Every structure is written in C-alpha cells, then in structure tokens.
Amino acid sequence: MFSGYALERFFYWKFAEETTYTKMGAWWNRKGEEEIDLVCEDELNETIDFYEIKRDIKRFNPAMSVAIVL
Fold it and tell me: Which residues are within 8 A (CB) of 45 and not within 5 positions of it... i.e. 6 or more apart?
C-alpha cells in the first residue's frame, strides 16, 4: 500500500515540475469505491488528463481505460 502511494506522489511532483498542469489531485466517487489516482487539468490549453498509477502490471486492466476527446 505505502509503495503505491509513494509512486503516486512521485508522479504528482514530477508532473507538477515538468508540465503545464494548473490543477492536480486524486478523485474518488461519493461511496469511496472508485478512484482515479491522478486528475490533471491544464486550464490554459483546456485539457484534462486522467492517470491510473499501478506498481504491478497485473493490476492494470486496459479494458477499463478510456480515451476521451473533447
């Protein structure tokens, strides 16, 4: 659990230093059952990127990945 959280924090700070994101954070639904590890908004370019950060490739499910074009 801790190493997964540490990896999420690593990417948060890496993106904060190296990108144009203006807002960043995690998201949970009201019941706390669903989570997006990192939601990043670039208000200047009007884009939002969603990141699911996994330490173990076995926990990644490409079927749950969605590409959204606005």
Answer: 20
**9 Rama class: left (phi>0) / alpha (psi -120 to 50) / beta:** alpha
Max CA separation in the chain (angstroms): 36
- State the pTM of this model: 0.71
Spatial distance between the Cα atoms of 52 and 45, rounded to a whole number of angstroms: 22
Label residue 48 by pLDDT band (50, 70, 90). very high
Mapped onto helix, strand or coil, the DSSP state of residue 3 is helix
Tokens of 16: 């904060």
Q: Where are the domains of the chain?
A: 2-64
